[in-house]
Amino acid sequence: MAERKSIEETKVALHDVVREMYDRIVKGDPPTMTLPVRTKNNIGFDPKLGVYKYGKKRTIRDATSLGSAKQLLRALHVIEFIESMIDDGKSSTLREMYYISEGWGLGKFQSQNESNNLAEDLEIVTRCLREDFKLRPEEDGARMIGNLTLRERNRRGEWMRINARDDVGDSGYGVPYNVEAEKIEFLEHDIKFIMAIETGGMFDRLVENGFDEDFNCALLHLKGQPARSTRRIMKRMSEEWDLPVVVFLDGDPWSFRIFASIAYGAIKTAHISEYLATPTSTYLGITADDILAYDLPSDDLSKKDIEALNAELSDPRFADGWWQEQINMMLEVGKKAEQQSLAKYGLDFVTETYLPEKLQQLGL
Amino acid sequence: MSIAEKMAANQKQVAISEFFEKNKHFLGFDTLNRALITAVKEAVDNALDACEEARILPDIVVKITKLDNKKDILQLEVEDNGPGIPRASIEKVFGQLLFGSRFHAIRQSRGQQGIGITGVVMYAQLTTGDPTHVESKIAKEATAVSVDIGLDTRKNKAIKSNQDRIDWGEKAHGLKVKTKMKAKYQRGRQSVWQYLRMTSIVNPHADILFIDPDGEKHHWQRVTERLPGRVEAIKPHPNGIELGQLQRLCSESRESRMTTFLRRTFSGVSGRAAKELCEVAELEEKLKPKSLSPQKVRALLEAFQGERLLKGKPVKLLNPPTSCLSPIEELLIKKGLSKTIDSKFVTTMTRVPSVTQGNPFQVEVGLIFGEGMAADKPVEILRFANRVPLMYQQGGCLLTKAIESVDWRQYGLDQAGGRGVPKGPAAILVHLASTNVQFTSEAKEALSDNENVMEEARKAMLEMGRGLRKHLEKQKKMGKTKEKFELINDIIPAIAEKSASLLDLPVPDLAASITKIMSAVIAETTTTWNKETKQTDVHIILYNYTSRARSYTMLVNWPERQGAAMVGNELGGRKEALGVWAWKLETLQPGSQTVITYSLEGLEKGDWNETDVFYRGSQEVIGATKMDEKLLDEIRRQEQAAAAPPPEEDIEDTDGEDETVEAVPQSEVAHPTGDTKQTTLFGGDY
What we know:
The structure holds 2 protein chains of 2 kinds.
Chain A lengths: L6 H20 L5 E5 L6 E4 L4 E4 L3 E5 L3 H23 L3 E2 H7 L11 H15 L8 E2 L6 E3 L2 E6 L5 E5 L9 E2 L9 E6 L3 E5 L2 H9 L2 H4 L2 E5 L6 H13 L4 E4 L4 H11 L9 H4 L5 E4 L2 H6 L5 E2 L2 H11 L7 H13 L1 E2 L12 H14 L2
Parallel strand pairs in A: 5-6, 12-13, 12-14, 14-15
Antiparallel strand pairs in A: 1-4, 2-3, 7-10, 7-13, 8-9, 8-11, 16-17
Helix pairs in contact in A: 1-2, 3-4, 11-12
Chain B lengths: L2 H20 L1 H4 L4 H22 L5 E10 L4 E8 L6 H9 L21 H12 L3 E6 L6 E9 L4 E10 L7 E9 L9 H11 L4 E5 L5 E4 L22 H10 L5 H8 L5 H10 L13 H11 L25 H11 L4 E6 L3 E3 L2 E11 L10 E6 L2 E3 L7 H7 L21 E9 L16 H53 L7 H8 L1 E11 L4 E11 L7 E5 L7 E3 L6 E4 L2 E5 L8 E9 L11 E4 L4 E2 L2 E2 L2 H15 L43
Parallel strand pairs in B: 1-7, 12-14, 15-23, 22-24
Antiparallel strand pairs in B: 1-2, 2-6, 3-4, 3-6, 4-5, 7-8, 9-11, 10-11, 11-14, 12-13, 15-16, 16-21, 17-20, 17-22, 18-21, 19-20
C-alpha cells in the first residue's frame, strides 16, 4: 500500500530494483524488471479500500531486446539521480529530469513521455510516491473558491492562513502540486459539500452567480482530467471534513472517464488509487437523460466517442447498473452535450434551476 | 542577275529558313532552352561517334558562356580529342544538311536523331547572324585548321572565311567548335547538365567536363578504358523489309539468280530458305532479280512476311546476327550509375539480344537505390536509345510504360495502386539498343509501343526488382543484427556496471547472460574499399553465442567472373563453383569467434560493395543465408555450359551449284516468343 516512506525506506526500495537486475546477471541470465500490467484488464475492486487497484498480472521487462534493455539502463540512471537528490536535499521537475538525461549517454530519454512513464514504473515497483523520489510534475493544480480556511507552508517555511473565499481574488485559491500534510493543513469550514467542475467557463459562471455562497459549498475547477494534486486535495478534504463531493462535468464519454478516475481511481495510477480516489463522490451531470429531459443543444457522437463508450461498457469501474444504463442510453441517443449548453435557457438557468433540481435529487 | 532570278533566289532562301522555322519543334530548336540542349547534343554525339570509330577514348569539354544577358545570347564551345576532320571535309560536315554515311547502314548508331551539326550552324546564323568557328587537327598534320563556317542557304553550301592554320602545341588531334546563339541556360530535369550527366552514364569510357555559365565545373570522369565494341553493319532481314526497299534492292541487283540474290542480299536466309522462298512466291530460281515485275516483288514480300505458306508454315528463317548491337553491358552500367549517383546499391541487367520484325534489339536496365535520393518523390527515370539520352515526352514512351507496368510494391518501392511511376530513393535506367529504333514522332524523344521490346524490358525490371527486394531484406536483417550487437556490446555492460556501482558490489561477469540473450550464431560481414592497397577488403566474423559447440562451412560470392583475384586469404578454403568460395571451419566453441579475411584484387572502387555470405550447418546463422544447393548446382551447370565448345552451326547447303555460302556469323539468338529465361545468380546483382 502506498504511503509516505522515509528516506531510508525509499533507498532500500530502489535498491531492490537494482538488486533484481544485478542478481540476474550474476546467475547468468538477462537482467529484468518486474511490473504489474497497466491496462484495464488488470484492475480490480479492492473492497477494503473502496477503490480499483492493479491485479496480480505481472509483466517482466527483460534485456533481450534493445528497447527493453535501454529501459532498464534508464531506470538505473533515474535511481542514481534520485539517490543523489535525496542525499543533496534537492528536488526536480519531471521535465528537468528529462533534460538532465541528455548527459546519460545510452540511457538518455527520447521523449518526456518516456521519463514520466518510467517515474510511474518506479513508483509502482517500489510502492513509493514520486514525492519520495523528489520528483514533481509541472502540471498545475486546480483552483478553488469557498468558505473554508487552511494553512499552507510557503517557500520561506512559514505557515500562511488562507480563507478560500475572503483572501483570494476571482480566480480562487491555487492548489499547489504538493498537498500533503507537511505542506497543507485544513483548519475550518462552513460548507456542506464540494462541487468539482470540469470547465473554466462553468467554474467562472458559478463564481459570478455567487453559487458557493448561496449553496454553502466549495467550487473546485478540475481543468479537464484532474492532476494528481487536485484529486489528492479532494480526497483529503472529503475524508478529513467528512464532506460529500459532487462532480459536474460535460455529458460525454470522456467526462465519464474523468469521474471514474476521481471516484474509483485511474488505470494509469491504480497503484496509488487509495491515495487519490474519493469513493464517496457522486456524478451530478450532465447525464445522458439530462440531454433529453432539458432538451439541451447537442452534438452527434463521433466514431471515437462511440469506441470510448463501448470500451467503458467492459471497464470494471463502470460495471454497476446505473452506469451501464447511462452509457447505453448515450449510445442509443447518439448525442453528447457540454455543460455550457445549459446557457440555452439564459445565464442564470444553471444556478437557479438546473443545479438546485439535480442537488435535490441527490438529497443535498 | 535578272529580277526574276533574284526573286527565285530570295524565294529559295526564304524557303530554307522557313523550313527550319516551321519544323523547329522536331529539329529540336523550338524553345531557347531546348535549342541549347540540341546544340550540345549534336556536337557531343559527333565527338563520341568520331572517337568510337577512331578507337580513341574521348575527352570532351563543353563550356557555355553568357554573352548578353538581356538578349539571351550564349556562346557554346565544345572540344574533343577525336581524330579531327580533314580540311576539305570541314565545310561538308558543318555546312551541308544531311551529310554523312550513317543513314544507309543497318547498325546501331547514335546519329539517328536531329539534322546534325549543320542545324546548329544554321540556328546560330539565323539568331545571331554570326558564323560558327571551327578548329580541327588531324594526326598527320603539324598544325590545326582554323576556319569560320557560315551557310549559303540558297545553295545548301558552306561559306568559309578567316581560314588559317594555327599551332595547337601538344595536342595531336581533335576538334573545337565555338558558336554564338540565342538560347537560355536552365537547370533541372531538362537541361544541358542532365543531358551530359545521362550521356556520361551510358558512355562510361568518356571523360566529360562541363563548365556552366556561372563558371562552375561539373566533371564526369572516365570509369573504364574499354571502348564500346565495334559494331558491324548487317544486311537487311526479310522480316523487317518494306515494299519500296525490296523493289530497290531487286532493281539494283546484279545477281543472275534469285537464290543467290536472296542469300547474299539478306541476313537469315540459308540456301534451303532461299529455295523455299522462291517456291512459295512462285518464282523460278533462275530468274534475274532485276527483271522481277512489281507483282512478283509483292509475292516475294508476302513470302518474306509469312503470308505465303509452305506445307502450312511460313518459310523458316534464321534470326539476324546481333553483332550489329553494342550494349553497354552490366558492369559498365553499374559504373556509370555509380559515378553520377552516390549510392551503395546498384543492380543491372543486360538481356540477351532479341528480334522484332527482323530487327535485332537488346534491352538493358539498371536500378540504383539509396539514401542520397528523395524518398517521397517519383523515382528518376533515365531513358536511352542507342546510348542517346531521351529527355522529353517521358510519359508517352514505351520504356516508361514498361516501368509503370511493374508492381514495384512487392520489391520495396511505393507505388499508388501498384501502377504508374514508383516512388522512392531510386533511379531506374532503361536502354534500348536496336538497329531500328521506332519513335512515336519526328521529335524522336519517346519510343513507340512494341510488344516484344515491352516484354523484354518488363522481364528485365522484374529481375532487377527481385534484386532490390533481396537487398532490402538483407539490410533489414543487418539492422536487427546491429541492434543485437549494440545490446550486448554497450547496453548490457552499462547495466552491469551501473547496477554494481549503485549496490557497491563488483561488476559481474557477463558472458553467460550475453549467450542467453543472443542464443544465436552471428556472422558480421564488412566489404570495404582500401584506398592504399587499391583492394577490396572483406572481413567475416562468426560468433557462436550459443551454449553448444557448432561447426560450419561458410561460403561467399566473389567477382571471379569479372576478373578479380582473391589475395591474403589465410584460411585457404576451396573453390565451390565459379564465383563461389568455401571454407570448412573448425568447431566453434560456445562464446568464441572465427575471422575470415581476404582481399579482392583487380577491381576498382565501387565495383564490389556487398558480399553475400552463405552457410552449411544445422544451426541458423544470423547475417548469412543457408546455402541453396540447387542454386549451386545451377551455377556449376552454367559454368560447364560456358566452358564447353559452342555447338556446330547446322547450316544446310544443298544449293551446290553456286559458290560457297559466305561465312556470316549467324550467332545464336533466342527468339522473342521462345523461353528466354535468363537468371542472374544473386538476384540481379553480381
